[in-house]
UniProtKB/TrEMBL annotation:
Gene3D superfamilies: L1 transposable element, C-terminal domain, L1 transposable element, RRM domain. Residues 1-29 are annotated as: Disordered. InterPro entries: L1_C, L1_RRM_dom, Transposase_22. It comes from Seriola dumerili. This is L1 transposable element RRM domain-containing protein. Belongs to the transposase 22 family. Residues 1-19 have a biased composition (Basic and acidic residues). Residues 61-154 form the L1 transposable element RRM domain. Pfam families: Transposase_22.
Length: 222
């Protein structure tokens, strides 16, 4: 091969290498762009899910769940039946204007088999204030009984929000044992008293970490 041919070959190889390096650089740039777009898309989906869940829970703000009543005891008029129960177990003075529910029905899961726990009854109050009065009275009274059945009232949260709030269960148990004053506030935040101040945590681990590191605590009966 002549010197001219060798030079041409080297020039061709050099251009080929430059083209390959340029292609790899463009590919790296495209991958970076796709990674950023994927991260942005995932964040958008996460934000949208949070908004939808917030809207769902806001639509349930007048709802409560009632558990412990045998299947079928409500008969054909569950709304009237639940209104009667609330008046009976919580006291007529709990509701200055009487109990008014827009509707009440069993949860939409499959009817339980014999021996399984009954489905919850979901009720929607006409007035948000009455829902809050019912929940406050139930917490004050503690154990509720109706016709030899132990019943409980709970807020009607979405499944996703219930899971977020359950993350605090172990932390709440420890704080109760230590007689530390706390509240779990909407949507899923732990409010804890310390030195006369309200401290708010969204992470149960961080709340416990502070508790063990602080050294002194504001304690009170729950």
């Amino acid at each position: 091969m002549s010197e001219r041919e060798e030079g041409a070959q080297r020039e061709y190889s050099s251009r080929k290498q430059e083209d390959m390096e340029g292609g790899l650089n463009r590919l790296d740039g495209d991958m970076d762009t796709l990674s950023r777009r994927l991260a942005q898309t995932e964040q958008t989906v996460q934000d949208l899910r949070a908004k939808v869940d917030d809207m769902e829970n806001r639509s349930r703000r007048c709802n409560l769940r009632l558990t412990g009543l045998p299947e079928g005891c409500e008969g054909g008029s569950p709304t009237k039946y639940v209104e009667k129960i609330l008046q009976n177990i919580l006291g007529a003075d709990t509701f200055p204007n009487g109990v008014e529910l827009q509707r009440a029905h069993r949860s939409l899961m499959s009817r339980p088999k014999p021996g399984q726990p009954p489905r919850a009854i979901i009720m929607q109050f006409l007035r948000y204030q009455d829902k809050e009065r019912a929940l406050t009275a139930a917490r004050r009274l503690g154990t509720l009984r109706y016709e030899n059945n132990t019943i409980r009232l709970y807020p009607d949260y979405s499944f996703e929000l219930q899971q977020k709030r359950r993350r605090f269960d172990e932390t709440k148990k420890i704080l109760r044992e230590k007689r530390v004053e706390y509240r779990l506030v909407y949507p899923a935040r732990l409010l804890m008293k310390h030195a006369g101040k309200d401290l708010i945590y969204t992470d149960p681990g961080e709340a416990l970490k502070f508790y063990y590191l602080a050294g002194t605590y504001h304690e009170a009966k729950l």
